[in-house]
Specification:
D-Maltodextrin-Binding Protein, domain 2; alpha+beta; 14% strand; 2 domains; single chain; 18 helices; six-stranded mixed β-sheet; 452 residues
Length: 452
């Protein structure tokens, strides 16, 4: 067993290392005769307690599977650098990818077929079929959906109180979000609301905001082709909302180049009143960014005009370059580390107990990758170990089931998100930006991508 801190993946691996790293991906046996398995752990910067918990889980796994030697690898998915890591062979044997990348990776033959292994484990039919579709090509399955989320509105309860707002009654409409953001900014000097804008996250959030307002940025024609529909009323309304917060209310802060990591850092530091992101981000906020749990609140994203809540998640996958021995070890690890805690009471309790003893988050709200009944049953199993402030997340926990889940666009997703980054940035840096013209051009450019 090797500490996950001993093996770190950089965003761009040195070219001289590519050959050796690729060789690792092909699978290897240690001098002891065990199969060495390189598995993704946490993003760089995760707190020591997270690694303590992981080390304990390594011990538990290796005690049950004495022929496998787990090697933890620091790992963080980022759209612009992921393709380089994948092409260079510098990814672990087991890693995770967002739903949005799975179809492209399938088309490129960059995921390992695990259909037979999943069938043998016996829970293929328990997956939410909409979620399983993200890793299915024909009748073959290429990964294990391990967690899903719905978009949520995250807010700082302390800033709400300082601004004279009730943290137990967060905004329920976009107009109320705007009003609260302005009040927070005026009363506290902090950003009332902030928006991601770069590394594909600006496009991701603009898509979510459009969906919440009844829009859709892409239409599936049902024949393998897609039509870009970016220039719709929902997307325009979302951009007008950001424009007004930035240029009329001055409530959007001063940093217009934020992504998932940097906006989490700012929020955890108490510099943001509200922002939109996946409902599961609380775990990372505490683990990686030292959030004070007392500050945290979560509610549903407001929806209007027949809109829904954008959902997503990620999938545990096996590198396509590994040999059969390593593949078998990889599936064993995925089943033990990711899946059994969703299906088996003893595994769920062991996982929750191990995490809670290292002060890691247990009970963060997610969307179930399996059926809702199984998910809610698993919460009863781990109830004694739940340590997240779910009472501060009540508006989301109770409200999300009343919203319509909407999947992310299926084709050229990350490329289109990157394209939309520039649209969001233009609106936030140019007071006179022509939103209609920006959307019209984005539609043309996105269609060109879809037609490739």
């Amino acid at each position: 067993m090797k500490s996950p801190r001993t093996v770190a993946i950089a965003g761009l691996a040195a070219l001289a290392m590519v050959g050796s790293l690729a060789a690792c991906s092909a699978g290897a046996s240690s001098d002891s005769g065990k199969t060495e398995l390189r598995v993704a752990t946490f993003p760089p910067g995760a707190d020591e307690a997270a690694y303590t918990a992981f080390a304990e889980q390594e011990k538990q796994f290796e005690k049950e599977h004495e022929d496998i030697d787990i090697i933890g690898v620091e790992y963080e998915w980022e759209g612009p650098t992921f393709a380089v890591q994948l092409a260079g062979g510098s990814l672990p044997d087991v890693f995770t990818v967002p739903f949005t990348d799975s179809k492209t990776l399938l088309e490129n033959g960059q995921l390992m077929d695990v259909t037979d292994e999943m069938d043998e484990l016996g829970y293929t039919d328990k997956f939410n079929p909409i979620i399983l579709d993200a890793v299915t090509d024909g009748d073959r399955i290429y990964g294990f959906p391990r967690q899903a989320y719905a978009m949520g509105l995250h807010y700082n309860r302390t800033l709400f109180e300082e601004a004279g707002l009730d943290p137990d009654n967060p905004p329920t409409t976009w107009d109320e979000v705007r009003e609260a953001a302005k009040t927070i900014s005026e009363k506290t000097g902090k950003a009332g609301f902030m928006e991601m804008t770069q590394n594909n996250t600006g496009g991701w959030q603009l898509t979510a905001a459009s969906v919440a307002r009844g829009g859709s940025i892409q239409e599936d024609n049902g024949d393998g082709t897609y039509t870009s529909t970016i220039a719709n009323d929902g997307t325009k309304s979302a951009l007008e909302f950001l424009h007004d917060l930035r240029w009329e209310d001055n409530s959007l802060g001063s940093n217009m180049l934020l992504d998932w990591g940097t906006i989490n850092q700012e929020f955890a530091a108490g510099n943001i009143g509200m922002y939109s992101s996946g409902s599961d981000v609380y775990t990372a906020l505490v683990r990686d960014f030292s959030l004070n749990p007392d500050d945290y609140g979560l509610t549903v994203v407001p929806v209007e005009n027949g809109g829904g809540t954008l959902g997503g998640g990620d999938i545990a996958v096996v590198s396509p370059t590994v040999d059969d021995e390593t593949k078998a070890a990889a599936v064993t690890w995925i089943d033990w580390y990711y899946m059994q805690k969703l299906l088996n009471e003893d595994a769920a309790v062991l996982d929750a107990k191990t995490l809670s003893e290292s002060d890691q988050a247990v009970g963060t709200p997610v969307l179930p990758v399996l059926d809702r009944e199984t998910y809610e049953q698993s919460l009863t199993w781990i109830e004694p170990y739940i340590n997240v402030p779910r009472d501060q997340m009540t508006p989301f926990i109770e409200g999300v089931w009343d919203q319509t889940p909407v999947g992310e666009p299926k084709s050229k997703t990350q490329e289109i998100y990157a394209l939309l980054d520039t649209v969001v940035q233009a609106v936030l840096t140019d007071q006179n930006a022509d939103i209609d013209a920006l959307l019209a051009k984005a539609d043309v450019d996105a269609q060109a991508l879809l037609d490739q």
